[in-house]
Amino acid sequence: MLQVNTVTDAGRYLTFTLNGEAYALDIFHVTEILEYRALTVVPMMPDFIRGVINLRGRAVPVIDLAIRFGRGRTEIQRRTSIIIVHVDDPGLAEMAGLDSDDKSIADGQDIGILVDSASKVVTLQPDDIEPPPAFGAGIRADYISGMARRDTDFLILLDIAHVLSISDMVRLSEMAQQPVEP
């Protein structure tokens, strides 16, 4: 059975746009917001991994959420931003066959998210938020933690742990590197 994380407490969310749609993620995961800067392309990566940036001496991968959601490629414009989030993924240690006490894995990973623009931080109350839909919104339901009502539309609240599951991305990267059979 599919388990979906839903929002039950009031919280603060960073809002951003992607292909004209409004999204938000829990501010707890956000470490910083950067203006777009040139990326170093890494060969043999899936299309949604646009490259890496040098963030204070560390290589941080940058994911294009539009590609990850199957909605085309983010066009770089004046307001394009990279949101740096911290993701914990216990599945990565299991995949690597490592002891979960290994600090490099246990501490998680910083990942950049390429978006059209970062907007503002909003506070949402539990009664502002509906459960994720069983279909629609153009992305997998397990990527959504809820839908926040706004004036005439909804704000899609992302479950960043699912959207940026490192173990899922490693699997996709490995599949991208396998030769295509004729």
UniProtKB/TrEMBL annotation:
One of the GO BP terms on file: signal transduction
Domain CheW-like: 10-169
SMART domains for the chain: CheW
Stored SUPFAM superfamilies: CheW-like
Annotated GO CC locations: cytosol
PROSITE patterns: CHEW
UniProt name for this protein: Chemotaxis protein CheW
Organism, scientific name: Actinoplanes cyaneus
Taxonomic lineage from the root: Bacteria, Bacillati, Actinomycetota, Actinomycetes, Micromonosporales
